[in-house]
Write the structure tokens for this entry.
Amino acid sequence: MSKSIFVIQKHAATHLHYDFRLEIYGKLKSWAIPKGPSFDPKEKRLAVLTEDHKLNYANFEGLIPEGQYGAGTVELWDKGTYKNLKDISMEKSFHAGKIEVWLEGKRVKGGYALVKTKMGKGKDWLLIKKEDKPITD
């Protein structure tokens, strides 16, 4: 299993939220998570699919000026690598609407699933913390 990057940016825009980004297709697929990621497997968090970003955006911190899309402060909240936990490619997992990854960040570690819902015109997903079981390479 090869490792790709993930990043979570705390974004104080119109509403405070966390942007969860996974490297897929050579770019960052992005979801806005209003309450941020949960560390409790019993909690499901809304994750709204947003626009893709270039990989170099993974290091962005700073102020997006008023009048621009996403205006507000962006803080790099967590960053690390992830492993795909499924036997199919990340691209196929994304299109199937069920992604399972193992995150290795400074704050966020362990298994997570992103599952597409039938709500929100295809943009609403749920981010779910999985029960952690050690994985082997």
